[in-house]
Design goal:
The chain contains 10 helices and 13 strands. It has about 300 residues and is of the alpha/beta class. Strands 8-9-10-7-11-12-13 form a 7-stranded mixed β-sheet, covered by helices on one side. α5 packs antiparallel against α10 (about 285-305) and α6 (about 120-130) packs across α9. It starts with a strand and ends with a helix.
């Protein structure tokens, strides 16, 4: 079953998604819509696609579409695609409000279309074997630091960076979060760029998240503590230390999924669209749950002053 694929947004991630649709077998890459037609052309034409100046024109030509525009536009553009009967892959976060995320989820259910969200780190966890550990964690500590960038300035570091690790925490938690506390620093433009947050769950599980968009370099680590031991991950070195009795995959970095998490996530979306998989890697409900906790962290920041 051949699918016609297109991309909304010609930024960095829009380019990544355009290349995925151009390379994946069984997909005909149609093109890119962007409010700046020259950017759309730059992203689409080298891959054999078209630049679209109107969103409706792109939607009329595709079966599946990726929303890779700034996060503030995710919900409205996903809803437009769903209204046109298209299956949608939305880059994270799925929206910038829980109400909008629920609107996307409800519209997709009513229209009978697939909505996936780009929490691509989930495939790395799967490649390691962490989603199959038969023991509930006690503690997760995640650090995700990067240097200053003009990208994603429309949202805080919580919705830009922390939401990745929030999704991973929710994926291994056996219960729902009940409280969130946070502290941080704003940049000169008023956006939260450094945030440390702690979420407590019904089961007693605690997740601690530390993100920064003002670091000297990139630093990504995670420690997951279980009753029987712990797993300490260095995502930059693509290694981990495991003191639990559970067999994880030390060669996870060499798996196709870990080498190209975005590609694996997009392929999972397409498999769900074709009916070859029961669901995408991360569905709209899970993306909404991650957003819900991220918004709770942002509210905790505001409450703390």
């Amino acid at each position: 079953m051949s699918l016609r694929g297109g991309v909304i947004g010609a930024g960095v991630f829009g380019g990544y998604h355009a290349r995925q649709y151009a390379r994946i077998a069984g997909v005909d890459f149609v093109g890119v819509f962007d409010t700046h037609p020259d950017r759309a052309a730059k992203a689409a034409m080298p891959l054999g696609g078209r630049a679209f100046a109107e969103l409706d024109d792109l939607l009329a030509q595709v079966d599946v579409v990726t929303v890779a525009s700034p996060a503030t536009h995710h919900a409205e553009q996903a809803l437009a695609a769903i209204a046109a009967g298209k299956h949608v892959y939305v880059e994270k976060p799925i929206a910038i409000s829980v109400a909008d995320a629920e609107r996307v989820r409800a519209a997709a259910a009513k229209a009978g279309v697939i909505v996936a969200c780009g929490h691509q780190e989930r495939v790395v966890f799967q490649a390691m074997g962490l989603l199959d550990v038969p023991e509930q964690p006690l503690l997760l500590e995640a650090v995700r630091h990067g240097p200053p960038s003009d990208r994603s300035r429309d949202v805080s570091a919580v919705l830009d960076l922390m939401v990745h690790d929030i999704d991973l925490a929710l994926a291994i938690a056996a219960s729902q979060p009940v409280t969130a506390e946070a502290e941080g620093h704003r940049a000169d433009d008023g956006v939260w760029d450094e945030v440390r947050a702690e979420a407590s769950f019904e089961s007693g599980f605690t997740a601690i998240f530390d993100v920064s968009r003002r670091a000297a370099g990139r630093h990504r680590t995670m420690r997951v503590v279980y009753p029987s031991g712990e797993v300490a991950i260095d995502f930059m070195a693509r290694t981990f230390r495991n003191t639990t009795p559970f067999a994880l995959n030390p060669g996870f970095a060499d798996t196709p999924a870990a080498q190209d998490p975005l590609g694996a996530s997009v392929e999972g979306f397409l498999a769900a669209v074709r009916g070859e998989a029961p669901r995408p890697v991360v569905d709209a409900a899970e993306a909404t749950s991650a957003l819900d906790l991220a918004i709770a962290v942002e509210q905790a920041l505001e409450d703390a002053g």
